[in-house]
Each structure stands twice: as structure tokens, then as C-alpha cells.
Design brief:
This protein has one domain: Ribokinase (UDP-N-acetylmuramoyl-L-alanine:D-glutamate ligase). Helix content is 40%, strand content 24%. The protein has helices spanning 19-29, 60-70, 86-99, 124-134, 144-151, 161-174, 216-229, 234-253, 268-276, and strands at residues 5-15, 33-44, 54-56, 75-80, 100-108, 113-114, 117-118, 139-140, 178-181, 190-197, 200-207. Bound molecules: 3-hydroxy-5-(hydroxymethyl)-2-methylisonicotinaldehyde.
């Protein structure tokens, strides 16, 4: 296998098992070098903690990029997650163009919303800017809430295949080439991932585990990006990421009070096995 280098751009939540503290170990476990560009440093994530600190690193982004360009540092893949401001989104678009290799794979996780709501601090202007970044994605990895915001459609918990098809269609109109839509359930007790790859729709259905954990979107996107860079097709990468997230949720359920994230660390071995199968 040729050794690949991926750049991930998202925040560091110092405590909270999300964003960079997930992406770095998970992408590394996939056997892919993981470089980082932190978009912000927060003392914790914003979902459930109060009074967190937030240091915006927007102004560092162009100078970091210029240094890399000068050193001729290029990335085989760029994977973006939680971004702190609309200005950062513009910088990321520029980073896509200037430090990616010719065949650079761009994976965008529009991490901005869940359960029908935007995360604290995000607004309609941010959603508009995120639509532009999604249009540059080779692989777009939204949950259903993010997809509804990106498509200006109603968020639904009860839906049919026609609703999902409309979301997919609208995201392709934005410009996203391939779409991996997570958390799609057509049957009680089951959930799954819709994969729209090279114009072909497929669906990986699996068991629904009721103890949802914060941070699983980041675990999912990181495992997906890592698997993709290791040469899996989108469906296989989406399946590996889903199976790994299930392992993480099961591991987390073993303890009652682990509320702020998913215990992904003890089951990294499972991910490594799946990647190397
Ligand atoms: O998991 C997404 C995420 C990433 N980073 C920060 C967050 C969240 C979700 O709440 O608050 C800072």
C-alpha cells in the first residue's frame, strides 16, 4: 500500500471525545498519516457543558497554509469537520485548492447540527457558507438534520424514501459528488446509512442502539475518511464506519454516567481489523 497523508481541519475540544481528539487517533488507526489544522481550541465541546472557553484560530489558517505551500507540503486527502466561523469556511475552500495533491480526496462533514437543531453559535449565514463548501466535496457526510438545513427542507423524524431521495438530489445540486447520509431509519429497531456513490444509491441497514452518544458523528466521519484513503469504496468505508460506531456505542453503554462522548478507544482494535480485512 502506498503511504497516504490526510489533513483534517476541525476544532480541538480539549475534553469531550469529539473533533480532533477523535479524528487523530481514528484516522491513525486506519493506517493513514493524520496532519491537523485546528480551527479553534475549546475547553470542552458545546453540547452539555456550560461556560466553555473558545479561542478562534481563524487568523492562523492562512499563514499555516502559506508555510505548507512554501514547503511544498501536499495532502492526499482533506477532511473537514466542525468549523468555527463563516470566514474559516472561505479559508478551507482555499486550502482545498492550494495544498491538495492532484487527486486529493475532499471529505466534508458539515458538523453543525443534530436532532433538528443547529449547534450553539451557528446561524443561517453559517449554513449558507457551509452549502458552498459542501459543493466542493468529493464525499459529503451529513446527518439528516444537517442535510435538511443544507437543502432548506423540513427536518423530519418520520419520512419515506422519497424524502431521502429529495435530500440527496438537492445535495448533488449543491455540487457534492458522493453523499453518505447517516442515521436513516426506515424500520423500527433499525437504522442505517444511505450511500450515493457515482450516481448509484445503496443502503447499509443495521441494528438501532437506543443509547445515542455525543461525538459519534465525528467518529463516523473519521473512520469513513480513513477507510476511503485506504482504498475502500464509499459503501465499504461507510459500512466499516457504521460497524465501528456500533462497537463504540456498545462500549459506552457499559458505564451509566459517561454522558459527554463515546468510548471509542477500547475498540480501536476492531476498526484496525476491519480496515485490514
Ligand atoms: O461533535 C461535533 C462537535 C465538534 N466540536 C464542537 C462541538 C461539537 C458538537 O457539539 O461542540 C466544539
Amino acid at each position: 500500500m502506498s503511504y497516504k497523508r490526510l489533513l483534517t481541519i476541525q476544532d480541538i475540544s480539549c475534553v469531550g471525545q469529539c473533533s480532533l481528539t477523535v479524528a487523530l487517533p481514528v484516522v491513525s488507526a486506519c493506517g493513514v498519516e493524520c496532519a491537523v489544522l485546528p480551527s479553534a481550541v475549546l475547553s470542552t465541546h458545546t453540547a452539555g457543558f456550560s461556560g466553555y472557553t473558545f479561542r478562534d484560530l481563524t487568523d492562523d489558517m492562512p499563514t499555516i497554509k502559506e508555510h505548507w505551500a512554501k514547503e511544498n507540503i501536499k495532502f492526499d486527502a482533506i477532511y473537514t469537520g466542525y468549523l468555527g466561523s463563516t470566514k474559516q469556511i472561505d479559508y478551507v475552500a482555499d486550502i482545498f485548492d492550494s495544498v491538495g495533491t492532484e487527486s486529493c480526496i475532499k471529505v466534508v462533514d458539515p458538523a453543525m447540527a443534530d436532532n433538528g437543531k443547529l449547534y450553539p453559535g451557528f446561524d443561517a449565514e453559517f449554513v449558507e457558507a457551509m452549502k458552498g463548501l459542501c459543493g466542493k466535496a468529493d464525499y459529503l457526510v451529513p446527518n439528516i438534520t444537517e442535510a435538511a438545513f443544507l437543502c432548506d427542507m423540513e427536518y423530519k423524524t418520520d419520512y419515506d424514501r422519497a424524502y431521502i431521495d429529495e435530500l440527496i438530489e438537492k445535495m448533488t445540486v449543491l455540487g457534492a459528488k458522493n453523499i453518505i447520509l447517516t442515521g436513516i431509519s426506515y424500520e423500527e429497531g433499525k437504522t442505517g446509512v444511505v450511500v450515493f456513490e457515482k450516481g448509484v444509491y445503496s443502503y447499509y441497514e443495521h441494528e438501532f442502539l437506543p443509547n445515542s452518544c455525543h461525538g459519534t458523528g465525528d467518529i463516523y466521519a473519521s473512520a469513513f475518511a480513513g477507510a476511503l484513503v485506504r482504498g475502500k469504496n464509499a459503501y465499504d468505508a461507510a459500512k466499516i464506519a457504521a460497524d465501528y460506531v456500533l462497537c463504540c456505542i456498545r462500549a459506552t453503554a457499559e458505564e451509566d454516567n459517561h454522558w459527554y462522548g463515546a468510548k471509542f478507544e477500547p475498540v480501536l482494535g476492531e476498526l484496525i481489523k476491519m480496515i485490514n480485512e
